[in-house]
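With this grant's support, we have settled on a layout for protein records. An illustrative entry appears below exactly as we store it:
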Amino acid sequence: MADKTDLLGPLHPGEVLLEEYLKPLNISQNKLALHLRVPAQRISEIINGKRAIIADTAIRLSKVIGTTPEFWLSLQMDYDLQVTIRSEGERINREVEPMLV
């Protein structure tokens, strides 16, 4: 049986940013962008799953929101890994030969 992640797809860090931080704290994307000192378009693209959270953004988010850069980069890494497993996992498993047992 498929778990919840399989049914909904990988969770993009932008969704976490929106649902766990911006909405509960009643912070607009524009206000966050101003505090981060980044273009509002960057935040919009992250929220909409069209842009990854890179190290620079992770550091800025951690300072403004009070998390760690590792938190944001971990979310991004998990998302990227799940997307790649879904799209390329079977092909990689067929192509790659283990060297060490």
